[in-house]
Each structure stands twice: as structure tokens, then as C-alpha cells.
Write a structure and sequence with these properties.
- The chain has a 5-stranded mixed sheet.
- It is an alpha/beta fold.
- The relative contact order is 0.08.
- It is built from 10 helices and 5 strands, in the order H-H-H-H-H-H-H-E-H-E-H-H-E-E-E.
- It is elongated and about 75 Å long.
- It has helices at about 1-15, 15-30, 35-55, 55-65, 80-95, 100-115, 135-145, 165, 190-195, 200-210; strands spanning about 150-155, 170, 215-220, 235-240, 240-245.
- Strand 1 (about 150-155), helix 8 (about 165) and strand 2 form a beta-alpha-beta unit.
């Protein structure tokens, strides 16, 4: 168990720079912060949470309700960002004179930048293209299939899975982001069919109908629209390069023009 906890902890702190900056900030506030409420919120709760994370009895109890992979989220209770930010403010404010305070603030900012990572190096993050912080293609496709006042069920290609439910709760899916996590060993034949390089439209349509999907979303470059003829789904429109197909006998309260 101890080895598993240490692995989770090392994975959580990554390269360790942010954790090191937090530790320095924690120690600094232990000496300079005298306000009792702030000490409780920022320091005592942090210390207790970290201690519990490594406490074997606490670990055994939590493992009864959470899987080992989820246990690292206990560390989310540690207010690392707040501690670092507040310590930086206290440090800069401790100098006399605006020039010295400005220099100290720049030093703190530089420490945060140097110890951090560029977020857009991660393939799962990109500059926001709308207020929902999801790819604009997802927003356009979802807007094309949302029916006001009810839920619809749609199957999406792999690249859209993490964002659909973030954008709207009115669109349900037969599977979600969990399918992309190999270690969870989830299995769904529809997901496998949707991932094939050249889409087998008849197979996808059959599986989608079995799983109650009103819509099928496919990139226009990965299939032939004519292949959907007589599959039980018909073409509705193309949004952001993705073709939208609706189940023939699905009544969603909308009227679509014949295509």
C-alpha cells in the first residue's frame, strides 16, 4: 500500500517544482502569518490533509469507497494555489517602497512561471475559441442537434468525446471520454466501429440504433454519404465538416427538409 501511495503522490506533483514552491510558501507563512483564521484555512488544513493522505488507517478506509487511482484527488483539498499566491503577496508587501515591492512581485511571478509548464504543450488543451472553452466544431455540431426542452442521444467521433457534455447536458452519448483511457479496459463495439479509419456506415448505424442513438456524427472525409442509404439513418446537414445523420423513425419535435 505504501508504494502505491508514493507512486500516486509522485505522479500528482509531477516534476516537483510546484510542490516545492508550495512548501517554501507554507514555511514562510508559518513564520510571518499571525492571523488565526488565515492560518487555519491555509496552513493547518493543508498540513492535516497531507498527513491524512499518508496515514495508513485513513488510506484503508478511503480505499473501501474509492479505487486506488482516484485516491490522489484527496490532495485536491490542499489549497496549493491559494497558499502560493497569498505568500507571494505577503512577501512583496513586506518591503517598504513601491519600487522594492514591484521588484519583489516580479520575482514572485518569475518563480511561478519558471516552475510551471506551458499549458498548451498538452494536446488536450488549446486556446479558447468560445466562452464554453470547447472546440468551436463541437459547439457548432451540438447546436445543430440540440432540441429545446428534451434530451437527444448522439454518437460522436473520438476527438469530440471530452467536450460534448462540457458544452451541453441536453446531448447524451452511449459512451464518453472513459473509452479513451486504456487502463480502464472499457469495451463498446460502437466505439470501436467509430474509430475505424474508414467508417463502416452500415455497422455503425446498426450499433447506434441498438444503443438508442438519435444522431450519428461523422467527419465528411471518413465516409461516403451514400453508404447511409437504407441504414435507418438519413443525412440532415453538415456542420463544421461533420455530417449529421438522424434516425429515420426518431421524432424529436423538429422538421427537417428532405435532402
Amino acid at each position: 500500500m505504501w508504494n502505491e501511495i508514493m507512486v500516486l503522490f509522485k505522479n500528482y506533483i509531477g516534476n516537483g517544482w510546484a510542490a516545492g514552491l508550495f512548501l517554501v510558501s507554507f514555511i514562510y507563512l508559518m513564520f510571518v502569518e499571525k492571523d488565526r483564521v488565515k492560518r487555519i484555512i491555509l496552513l493547518y488544513t493543508s498540513a492535516v490533509t497531507v498527513a491524512l493522505f499518508f496515514f495508513p488507517l485513513f488510506v484503508r478506509v478511503v480505499f473501501r469507497y474509492l479505487d486506488e487511482e482516484t485516491y490522489y484527488r484527496v490532495l485536491w483539498l490542499v489549497p496549493m494555489t491559494a497558499v502560493i499566491a497569498y505568500a507571494g503577496i505577503r512577501f512583496a508587501a513586506g518591503f517598504s517602497g513601491k519600487m522594492l515591492q514591484a521588484a519583489a512581485a516580479l520575482l514572485v511571478c518569475a518563480a511561478i512561471v519558471i516552475t510551471g509548464d506551458y499549458v498548451y504543450d498538452n494536446p488536450y488543451f488549446g486556446p479558447a475559441s468560445n466562452r464554453f472553452h470547447v472546440p468551436q466544431t463541437v459547439a457548432l455540431v451540438c447546436d445543430a442537434i440540440i432540441v429545446e426542452g428534451r434530451e437527444v442521444r448522439a454518437v460522436f467521433p473520438d476527438e469530440m468525446l471530452p467536450y460534448v457534455r462540457q458544452y451541453t447536458a441536453n446531448v447524451c452519448m452511449p459512451y464518453g471520454r472513459e473509452m479513451a483511457v486504456e487502463r480502464w479496459e472499457n469495451d463498446n463495439p460502437l466505439y470501436d466501429a467509430m474509430r475505424e479509419e474508414e467508417a463502416d456506415c452500415k455497422k455503425i448505424a446498426s450499433l447506434a440504433k441498438e444503443q438508442g442513438c438519435h444522431y450519428i456524427i461523422l467527419h465528411e472525409a471518413r465516409h461516403n454519404r451514400e453508404d447511409f442509404e437504407k441504414t435507418g439513418y438519413h443525412y440532415v446537414e453538415t456542420a463544421a465538416g461533420y455530417c449529421i445523420y438522424l434516425q429515420d423513425d426518431a421524432y424529436l419535435g423538429l422538421e427537417y427538409p428532405d435532402q
